[in-house]
Design goal:
About 65% of the residues lie in helices and about 0% in strands. It is mainly alpha-helical. The chain folds into 2 domains: about 1-85, no CATH class; about 120-190. Helix 3 crosses helix 4 (about 65-85) and helix 8 packs antiparallel against helix 9.
Length: about 190
């Protein structure tokens, strides 16, 4: 039993995880459903009564109840993976990456999945925390609505449905991510 738990705690290789994602996508296409986290959030907002205030949320959320089951499974799965399946070893980062992150003010890079000096409740009350977490979160929400979906919806569901707008969105996500990483993030980390 101990060996099985140690096997499960290791990251799954692409040739296991990739076909599982493809299998789920084929099932969603077969049943005529869409996938994406923004669809789940739209369903939650509609369920909580946002349809009274905005037409975007005015739809039959009961027909999309599987979105609620999906988001609950994602939260539960994330909690179980964190509590029971996380390896006890730090992330493996190259020495050059560690040096560069330390020069930008990131404390203990690679110690945790995300740097706690940037993403924590304490850092939320700093200028850097407000810019990265609050303003960044707003921009992600705005961009998701403006692009007609989130990265997972476009990159996984939209591309598997061969949708040209999803291809354009995914290319935009990558270009935007590269630009932010190289031209904006270094200045945000030094704030």
């Amino acid at each position: 039993m101990f060996e099985l738990l140690e096997f499960v705690r290791q990251p799954w290789p692409w040739y296991v995880a990739g076909p599982l994602i493809a299998l789920i996508m084929f099932a969603l296409i077969w049943f005529g459903e869409r996938f994406g986290l923004s669809s789940n959030l739209r369903t939650i907002c509609s369920m909580l009564g946002a349809g009274k205030y905005a037409d975007f949320f005015r739809f039959n959320w009961r027909a999309d109840i599987w979105n609620i089951v999906f988001i609950a499974g994602a939260l539960l799965g994330g909690a179980l993976a964190h509590l029971f399946l996380s390896p006890d070893i730090p992330m493996s980062l190259s020495p050059a990456t560690v040096t560069e992150l330390q020069s930008l003010g990131v404390e203990e890079p690679g110690e945790y999945m995300v740097p706690t000096s940037v993403f924590s409740w304490e850092s939320l009350l700093t200028l850097r925390g407000i810019l990265m977490l609050v303003v960044g979160g707003f921009l992600i929400g705005f961009g998701t609505r403006y692009a007609g979906g989130c990265t997972s919806g476009h990159a996984i569901s939209g591309l598997s449905n061969l949708q040209i707008p999803s291809l354009v969105a995914v290319v935009g996500f990558f270009i935007g991510g590269l630009l932010i990483t190289y031209f904006v993030l270094p200045y945000l980390l030094l704030v």
